[in-house]
Amino acid sequence: MTLQIDAVDRKLLRALQEDSRKSVQVLGEGVGLSASACHRRLKALEEQGLIEGYRAVLNAGKLGYSMQFFIEVGLTSQSETALEAFETAVQDIPEVLECHLMAGQSDYILRVVCQDHDDFERLHRRLSARLPGVARIHSNMSIRTVKARTGLPV
């Protein structure tokens, strides 16, 4: 269900996606609102669930994660129990940044980060051995990120 938002809400959401550290005063000025009106709109957008949270975007390379992989995972079964077991287990692997249930050749695609080749080998073994119901794994290494966007087009 898409919620109805106006042009000012859209400007406010775009501004937040660019830099959520701006003060309510600065955000309001940027969209033509007083600080109190901006604060009320932000609270309403949060209550409607349009704003789920605020996060810092970290530099993976500077934190030692120089490698990124997209890993396709096929399971031995697509039963609800098998899917739930896999999804629960993948939550406990911090290197897995994203996990998507897919329609197509693979059951899941994971986006993972690793520090080096040895780190990737350890992660690959962990995925193969510890995740329930894994039948096959196919890994693709990202050479370079061409476009990365955390925001949505609003």
UniProtKB/TrEMBL annotation:
Q: Give the record's keywords alphabetically.
A: DNA-binding, Transcription, Transcription regulation
Any one Gene Ontology BP term: regulation of DNA-templated transcription
In terms of PROSITE patterns, this protein maps to: HTH_ASNC_2
- Gene3D superfamilies named among the record's database cross-references: 3.30.70.920, Winged helix-like DNA-binding domain superfamily/Winged helix DNA-binding domain (1.10.10.10)
Offer an example of a GO molecular function term for this protein.
sequence-specific DNA binding
Q: Does the keyword Transcription regulation apply?
A: yes
- Domain HTH asnC-type per the UniProt entry, residue ranges: 5-66
Q: Name one GO cellular component term.
A: cytosol
> What name does this protein carry?
AsnC family transcriptional regulator
Provenance organism: Devosia epidermidihirudinis
Q: What is the lineage of its organism?
A: Bacteria, Pseudomonadati, Pseudomonadota, Alphaproteobacteria, Hyphomicrobiales
